[in-house]
Amino acid sequence: MEMHIDAEIINRIKSGKIEDYKLLMDRYKGMVVAIAGKRIPANDVEHVVQDIFVNAYRSLSSWSGKKPFANWLSRIAMRGCCDYWRQQKRGHCNSSNDLNEDHLAWLDLAASSASQEHFDSVARKHEAGEIITWALNKLSPEDRTVLEMIYFEGIKLNEAAKVMEWSLAKTKVKAMRARAKMRKLIMSLTEHEL
Amino acid sequence: MKDETRIERIEQALRVAYSHMPVNQPENDAWEDNVLREIASEKFIAECRQEQSNNFVMRLAWGALAASVAVALFCSFLQVLRSNDNLPGALEEYAYPVSGQWVLEQYAGVDYEE
Q1: If you placed Cys at B26, which of A46, B1, B63, B86 could pair as Cys (CB 3.0 to 4.6 Å)?
Q2: What is the pTM of this model?
């Protein structure tokens, strides 16, 4: 039913009623903002979301109508986020603040947590988010994207492969290497404590 | 605590932390107007048309290349078939002089029919 509605709107847009694109934006802006908002710093979300919707419009003719529009759009959104980090790396605007004693103390706290409740309360501390941001900023845009998708969000390998337009084998290897890099970064932090 | 276990616990906590990380919202809805303004602009429409025609030309070029490769392969296949057709005839040319009777007549000098 959803696909039918999307297909109808897209057909109207293709036949020249471009103002109907607003209907698609209204239907999917929540999803796109959720994808970009999780991956992009607050002050850049607006631009990235705008670019994602413009790119989606530009490639609207490539949507086959066989699979849900939401899946197709979410791939464009994730690639948009990856492009954002690529541009940041290119422009050397990657401001990764150094961590301090509080972050090291958080690592100690996380390592000693035994119960799920304790994990939850520890995870809600702002230091956790800062450590994740610090570690992700140290990775390449591809490693970062693949790690977020597979490791943090639990997206399946084959779905991640489609998003990145890689083969399944390449995605598997990339995910493994990205995780190893993340682990190395955490180890480098914990060594400070030893 | 072993280093390995320690890292695993930290990783697990980071995964939980990621799920709690807030979703940044755009500060205002201006982006919606900007998208609609951009896709309605003449410059953007012209760019999209140019892109579509470029894609068409590219597809056409790839199609022509694929077709010519297919024709070349088909022709060489026909060539192989034709050369195979000639094979029995070519063998026949050599078949007669090496027949058993001829060899006996030439070298043994014996006429077995007698």
Answers
A1: A46
A2: 0.73
Nearest 5°: phi and psi at B26?
-60, 145
CA-to-CA distance for A56 and A50, rounded, in angstroms? 10
Q: At what angle do helices B3-20 and A101-112 cross, to 10 degrees?
A: 110
pLDDT one-digit tens code per residue, A167-188:
999 999 999 999 999 999 988 8
Q: CA–CA separation, A131 vs A137, rounded Å?
A: 10
Please say whether the beta carbons of B27 and A46 come within 8 A: yes
Selecting from B9, B20, B27 the residue whose C-beta is nearest the C-beta of A113 gives B9
A156 inside 8 A of chain B by CB: no
Task: Test B10 with A37 for CB contact under 8 angstroms.
Answer: no
A131 at interface of B, judged by CB pairs closer than 8 A? yes
Cβ-defined contact of B39 to A54 (cutoff 8 Å) = yes
CB distance B25–A37 less than 8 Å?
Answer: yes
Give Cα separations from B95 to A18, B84, B90, B98, B100 (angstroms): 79, 17, 9, 6, 10
Name the minimum distance, in Å, from the CA of A123 to any CA of chain B.
4
Angle at A133 between CA B32 and CA A189, to 5 degrees: 175
Residue position matching structure tokens 């690639």: A79
Count CB-CB contacts under 10 A for residue B81: 9
